[in-house]
């Protein structure tokens, strides 16, 4: 049986380690960007209504992704949304609800928001 030198192992191990680290870092970066910059705002007042239940479900899913979700019943939540919109240069959409903000982009309307949440959870 031929002898294998230590140098021939290094030739394969170092690229494999580098490739493994690269793959791991790509996956981690994608998830953390999604989790840290996802904000869902809605205004539903009727707990027995279908839209309220739908918004509540979406809020739970956004929180599971590590984002934030707020029913804008109180002044504190509305002020937090207004501040975020001003920081992002999105003040012109302050009255658009329901609203999902991710980075500098946003979606308005339950159907589009639900589709995006489902895409993020895949």
Any low-confidence stretches, pLDDT <50, length ≥5? 18-35
The helix-strand sequence is HEHEHEEH
Largest sheet: 4 strands, mixed
Q: Let me know the average pLDDT.
A: 78
Main-sheet strand order equals 2-1-3-4
Structural class: alpha+beta
CATH topology of the largest domain: Glutaredoxin
Please name the CATH architecture of the largest domain. Answer: 3-Layer(aba) Sandwich
Count the beta strands.
4
CATH class of the largest domain: Alpha Beta
Q: If helices are DSSP runs of H or I spanning 4 or more residues, what is the number of helices?
A: 4
Radius of gyration equals 22 Å
CATH H-level superfamily title of the largest domain: Glutaredoxin
First-residue to last-residue Cα separation: 49 Å
SSE blueprint:
Blueprint: H1 6-36, E1 38-42, H2 50-64, E2 68-71, H3 75-88, E3 99-102, E4 105-108, H4 110-121
Parallel strand pairs: 1-2
Antiparallel strand pairs: 1-3, 3-4
Provide a quick synopsis of the model:
The protein is of the alpha+beta class. The chain has 2 domains: 1-33, no CATH class; 37-121, 3-Layer(aba) Sandwich (Glutaredoxin), CATH 3.40.30.10. It contains 4 helices and 4 strands, in the order αβαβαββα.
Q: What does the model show?
A:
- The protein has two domains: 1-33, no CATH class; 37-121, Glutaredoxin (3-Layer(aba) Sandwich).
- The chain has a four-stranded mixed sheet.
- It is built from four helices and four strands; from the N terminus they run αβαβαββα.
- With 122 residues, it is α+β, with helices and mostly antiparallel strands.
